[in-house]
Structures are given as C-alpha cells and as structure tokens.
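The following block was generated as part of the benchmark described in Methods. Ligand: iron/sulfur cluster.
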Amino acid sequence: MNPIFQARDLSVTFRVGTGSRRKLLSAVNRVTFDVERGECLAIVGESGCGKTTLGRTLIGLYEPGEGELLFDGRSTANLDAADRQMVRRRVQMVFQDPHASLNPRMKVGEIIAEPLRLHGIGTRDERQRRVADLLEHVGLPAEAAQRFPHAFSGGQRQRIGIARALALSPDVIVADEPVSALDVSVQAQVVNLLKELRARLGLTLIFIAHDLAVVRYVATRIAVMYLGRIVEIGRTEDVFGNPQHPYTQALLSAVPFPDPDAEEARQRIILKGDIPNPIDPPPGCRFASRCRYAFDECQRADPAMTRLPDHQQVACHLVAAPLAGQGVP
Ligand code: SF4
C-alpha cells in the first residue's frame, strides 16, 4: 500500500474568545488514518464533529496544531513554497454550496479556467479548450462557458464546481457535503458523476457527509467522527454490515431501508444526553454522556483504537476488552 495521505495523531485547534475568556477549541483531536490512492473515503458524523475541519486541513486551509500529516510520503510541515503550491494543485475541493462558491460576476468559462490562470498554465486558447473538455466531463454543453452561474440550476452549478476542481488534473478531490444543498432529485446525479469521474480519472475522493444513505452508495471506506475523534473506520460493507461503535450503530439506525419489510422492522436508536463542549471535553470516552453501554471505565479512560481482524478499527472499551454481558450487540 502506498497511501496518498497519512494522518498521525493529527490535531487542529482554534483559539476562541478574547482576553481572559480565551480558550482552545479542539476541532480535530489526535486522529490517525491513511487515505489510499484511488479510494473513496467518506468522513461522516453530526454537525460540529470536526469532519469539515479535517477536510480543510487535508487541502491545506488549516495547519495541524499537533501530530503529522504526510502527503505522498512527505510531511506537509516541511514543504517549501514551491512544494506547497504543488500540493495545492494536486488536492482540490468541491464545496457544499454551489450558489455561494461560484462568483456570480464571472462567466462559467472564466470560473473553470481561473485555477489554470492563477497557476500560469496554458495560453488563453489552450485554457478555453480545456474548459470545453471539462464541461464535457461533467455533462454540460460547451456553450455553458459563455453564461453566468445564475443561469444554471443547483445541480448544474455543482457540476461547474466539480469542473473547476478538475481543472488542474488533481490526484485528490475533497468534497465537503457536495450534495446536501441540492434537491433530493438531483443528489443522485451529482453523486453518480463523482463516482464515475473517480473511476475514469483514477481520482482519490474524500467525501465529507452526514447523509449515510449517500455515503453507502459512494464510499469504499468510512471514517465515523464524534467530537473531533475518529471512533470507527473500516470498509463500507463492514461498517454498514457490522457496526461496532455504539455511535456508529445509532447513526446507521437512522438510515431508512429501501425494502418496506426491513424498513418496518428497523429499530431506531435515539441518542439521549448532550454532546460535551469541545472546549472542555470529558477525560474518558467522549461519547460516554450519550452511550447506552457506558460503564465506569468509560468515564475514566479514553478508549484507544482497536484493530479488528478485518481491518475495521474501533475506539471503544467494549471492543478492546468485551465484558461479560456487555458486548456490543
Ligand atoms: Fe460507550 Fe464506553 Fe464504548 Fe465509549 S468506550 S462508546 S462510553 S461503551
């Protein structure tokens, strides 16, 4: 294996408040994972779990506070300006809101060509030809280049955002909730486009989402985040078929089944209790205040990641050392 990203005990911290009220908010806390070339790794969790911060750290918008992030085998902390520029070319982002992320005063052709222009790539004619190719890649006509973003639907605007992300022929696309702002009827089309582009262009896709039904369809592996930590990571079929962490089980219990009989029998796990404050997280398991299996050890000790035989990894005391009668069902 030759991962494109390797995160080792990676933390991202923000200062919040002013003066004597200044505190540290730990948005991502000691996460360790690899992103393999060509895979689609989904990062899932509720709002505020740190998934967007993690995605933005991968594309270089945030600096890791502690730990290490390697891109293509090299630590991103030691890159000079030229190498940072190279990483910025090779890792591109698709944003959540296609309305806000496209400049309404620029024509679509200028929007898509902008990354090429900023990196000084190609002549004006070459960039125009590239724009036409990119529009074709994302299923839009070449004439779209002459129009402004407002002339397009939400789904079409997201296609334009994807074309812009592809302009520099990146190795990795980080897609942050790329379909959550779209009508349900067009979500599948955009997800299908990302899947197809990943296969056709050999892209690595990091898909940040809260909608697990979408994730199941697109991801090859899933990392589940809770309060800045990855609590479970594994192949999609393993995480969906045999979720080990109580938080993953609760998230998956909210996903409807297409089969009416299975849907009728679905038992929803309702999470009670409050999410702890990320400025002052509890000393033990961060999920303990909402976990139906929590026991004394969970309040005291932070569970380490345990690797299961099929490579699924879980941070839960019950998985590390199942107690009689307390195994995660
Ligand atoms: Fe629940 Fe304890 Fe496992 Fe945390 S470590 S998920 S509180 S059982």
